[in-house]
Design brief:
alpha/beta, Rossmann fold, 7-stranded parallel beta sheet, 11 strands, 18% strand, globular, binds 2-hydroxyethylsulfonic acid
Length: 249
């Protein structure tokens, strides 16, 4: 049984991952911005295991520090950190990009991941064990027009994973970088700022991945034997070859 902290656990990949790892008997710290959603997930998952909830926004350093420092003693030794929180905002050319969207993506997907990791890595180093799972994207493998800033943040996640591995391997800490392809969550709804119709077109005419598929992949990495580190994993729906190449019926 491991103590696992999942950021962005209130929806999508984070929620499915927290659920699967809870059902497998791990103790889970679910993190997110929405208290009422956290509490309802906590109630649901408490049927399987011990759950602790932490409300904070990864983009806010002070909130991150206060929340993680507030963990009770028995929850402080985090074995696995799943850096899942992150989002895409907008799909615009650089010349017309909204700087608020850029700030949100850079602050959440890159700086937020760093803030949370900085709080948790020291304990892992002291204990000479731990596992960090960073959720990147296939957008890190192939840049696409209009999504350049999102792609750049995910490329940054790849680089941070690589750097973490260089700095943390000597402490017995594993680092896993996951690159999901098209996963049907509220990802596109957030990207298109609530435009349901436009979001639905992203997943039309083929079988996209489900959040549960990525949860399965993450659980495989988390459950690997102590001497095995799955360093990188890319998961596409069968119909997708790269971000913009999807075969629709
Ligand atoms: C999400 C996948 O292809 O929309 O990270 O960039 S994609």
């Amino acid at each position: 049984m491991k103590t696992i902290l999942v950021t962005g656990a209130t929806s999508g990949i984070g929620k499915s991952t927290a659920e699967l790892l809870a059902k497998q008997g791990n103790r889970i710290i679910i993190c997110g911005r929405r208290n009422e959603v956290l509490e309802s997930i906590k109630t649901e998952l408490s049927a399987f295991t011990e759950i602790f909830s932490l409300k904070f926004d990864v983009r806010n350093l002070e909130e991150v520090e206060t929340a993680i420092n507030s963990l009770p003693e028995e929850w402080k030794n985090i074995d696995v950190l799943i850096n899942n929180a992150g989002n895409a905002y907008g799909l615009d050319p650089l010349s017309a990009g909204k700087t608020d969207d850029w700030d949100s993506m850079i602050d959440g997907n890159v700086k937020g991941l760093l803030y949370v990791s900085k709080m948790i890595i020291p304990g892992m180093k002291e204990r000479n064990s731990g596992h960090i799972v960073n959720i990147s994207s296939i957008a890190a493998r192939q840049t696409y027009a209009n999504g350049v800033v999102y792609c750049a943040t995910k490329k940054a996640v790849d680089v941070i994973s690589e750097g973490m591995r260089l700095e943390l391997t000597e402490f017995g800490i594993k680092v896993t970088n996951i690159q999901p392809g098209a996963v049907e969550t509220d990802f596109s709804l957030v990207r298109f700022k609530g435009d349901n119709e436009r979001a639905a077109t992203v997943y039309a005419g083929y079988d996209p991945l489900k959040a549960e598929d990525i949860a399965d992949s993450i659980a495989y990495c988390v459950n690997a034997p102590k001497h095995v580190c799955i360093s990188d994993m890319t998961i596409y729906p069968t119909a997708q070859a790269e971000p913009r190449t999807i075969y629709r019926k």
